[in-house]
């Protein structure tokens, strides 16, 4: 599910540019084509461009002045929450990061690690705290104050308890993304921090995962 164009990996920032609306869904058995009404992400769109839809990197297969289409393959259908989308569903949208653009979130690949489920929502003054149960496969890459992408939105983890994480939405994020409107029981796409995954896998390959991260380990593996 990692988008590629011209042989290069596509990167997003987790800063949602706009909320789009699903205008058409054509279903197969474990695949579908989706049409999404949008404005901002269409300003400089081309065929083959990458657009993250709820954090999933999709490729523009056609477009007009008001919408674009993308194909969802069986792997993406099975591994993400996109299969829950229907006509009228709202979605977070972000174009791939430009080389000359400002970087406001964290590195997001558009490769979803799994789906989580919202289990609690609680307001505290201007903040909305959302607790999400995440898959076992994500547990090793999530830590307190670390970065995570939820439905393509770059967020900070404010609490970890087992496989439950809590994130806090500031007023801007509540209005600029779809997360505040989701209900308890709704699924969300989870992408763990890319750098955390790289470090974890590098340590596993070198047999040092049980020794922890040391300055020597970081230097020897090219991180410093």
UniProtKB/TrEMBL annotation:
Pathway: Cofactor biosynthesis; riboflavin biosynthesis; riboflavin from 2-hydroxy-3-oxobutyl phosphate and 5-amino-6-(D-ribitylamino)uracil: step 2/2. Residues 11-106, 107-203 form the Lumazine-binding domain. It is an enzyme of class 2 (transferase). It catalyses: 2 6,7-dimethyl-8-(1-D-ribityl)lumazine + H(+) = 5-amino-6-(D-ribitylamino)uracil + riboflavin. InterPro entries: ATP_synth_asu-like_sf, Lumazine-bd, Lumazine-bd_dom, Riboflavin_synthase-like_b-brl. Its EC number is 2.5.1.9. SUPFAM superfamilies: Riboflavin synthase domain-like (SSF63380). Keywords: Repeat, Riboflavin biosynthesis, Transferase. The keyword Transferase applies. Pfam families: Lum_binding. One of its GO terms (molecular function) is riboflavin synthase activity. Lumazine-binding repeats lie at residues 11-106, 107-203. The keyword Membrane does not apply. Catalyzes the dismutation of two molecules of 6,7-dimethyl-8-ribityllumazine, resulting in the formation of riboflavin and 5-amino-6-(D-ribitylamino)uracil. PANTHER family: RIBOFLAVIN SYNTHASE (PTHR21098:SF12), RIBOFLAVIN SYNTHASE ALPHA CHAIN (PTHR21098). This is Riboflavin synthase. It comes from Siminovitchia thermophila.
């Amino acid at each position: 599910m990692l988008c590629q164009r011209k042989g290069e990996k596509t990167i997003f920032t987790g800063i949602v540019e706009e909320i789009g609306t699903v205008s058409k869904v054509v279903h197969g058995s474990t695949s579908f084509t989706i049409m999404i009404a949008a404005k901002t992400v269409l300003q400089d769109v081309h065929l083959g461009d990458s657009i993250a839809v709820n954090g999933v990197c999709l490729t523009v297969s056609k477009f007009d002045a008001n919408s674009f289409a993308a194909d969802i393959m069986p792997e993406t259908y099975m591994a993400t929450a996109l299969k829950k989308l229907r006509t009228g569903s709202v979605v977070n949208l972000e174009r791939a990061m430009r080389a000359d653009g400002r970087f406001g979130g964290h590195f997001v690949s558009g490769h979803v690690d799994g789906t989580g489920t919202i289990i609690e929502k609680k307001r505290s003054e201007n903040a909305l705290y959302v607790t999400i149960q995440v898959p076992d496969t994500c547990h090793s890459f999530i830590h307190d104050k670390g970065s995570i992408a939820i439905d393509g939105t770059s967020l900070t983890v404010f609490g970890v308890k087992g496989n439950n994480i809590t994130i806090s939405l500031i007023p801007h994020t509540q209005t600029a993304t779809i997360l505040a409107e989701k209900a308890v029981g709704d699924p969300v796409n989870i992408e763990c921090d890319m750098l955390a995954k790289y470090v974890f896998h590098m340590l596993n390959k070198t047999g040092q995962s049980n020794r922890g991260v040391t300055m020597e380990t970081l230097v020897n593996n090219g991180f410093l």
